Amino acid sequence: MPDELLDRLRRFHDDAFPQYREQFQTLVDEGQHPTTLFIGCSDSRLVPYLLTGAGPGELFLVRNVGAFIPPYDGSHGHHGTTAAIEFAVLNLQVRRIVVCGHSHCGAIKAMYGEVSPEAPNLNRWLDLGREALLPMQAGPEVLRRTEQRAVVLQLERLMEYPMVRSRVQSGQISLHGWHYVIEEGEVHVFDVKTGGFVPASLADNSGTGPYHPYVGHDGQVLLDEL
């Protein structure tokens, strides 16, 4: 049986890599200097390099279920996402942090349903997004609103990181909240001035912080219970 992954690796080496050989060599000789930390959902339909048109060395990527960010509580443990944020901000000195959710997100849908008892770690991880839930049945519009609310919840949590907050307040780092609508190929960016998401085709900026409690299009504050 053919090994499809092996074939793809060989095609990369033989066909794709030669086009970028000098660029990769420069990135090895001079080190990486990405300007953007991109925190995105692990969903296979979200392709950051395709979405942003970025090339090698431009994005420092963090992918996890739901594009969630753990709270900065100073606890000791294996916090991969937190470690990546610290490294990107302190070592790589990125200038932007993007949190990118998307339509039809399995993590958001899962929070409205039952999580398998065989997935206790997933269940605990989803706690990081549950404050964004609405007390309604999970129809398409509710899921869309929850996906967007979850993005802003993560931005607010980012502002709890001391190294992020200080750099946002001093203008060294900008924060960007995005919601990618897969079937439209359109990214909706969070506009802190209006408190809502705006299609990138109509927006006048890609979204910057600092962020205040999110007020959705319906006037609801994110953390309020309905």
From TrEMBL:
InterPro entries: Beta_CA_cladeB, Carbonic_anhydrase, Carbonic_anhydrase_CS, Carbonic_anhydrase_sf
Keyword flag Metal-binding: yes
Membrane-crossing segments per the record: none
Cofactor(s) for this UniProt protein: Zn(2+)
UniProt GO molecular function: carbonate dehydratase activity
Alphabetic keyword roster: Lyase, Metal-binding, Zinc
One Pfam entry name: Pro_CA
Domain of life: Bacteria
Catalytic function, reaction form: hydrogencarbonate + H(+) = CO2 + H2O
Enzyme Commission code: 4.2.1.1
Enzyme class, spelled out: lyase
Keyword Metal-binding assigned: yes
Assigned protein family: Belongs to the beta-class carbonic anhydrase family.
Biological role stated in the UniProt entry: Reversible hydration of carbon dioxide.
Protein name per the record: Carbonic anhydrase
Organism: Acidovorax facilis
Taxon lineage: Bacteria, Pseudomonadati, Pseudomonadota, Betaproteobacteria, Burkholderiales
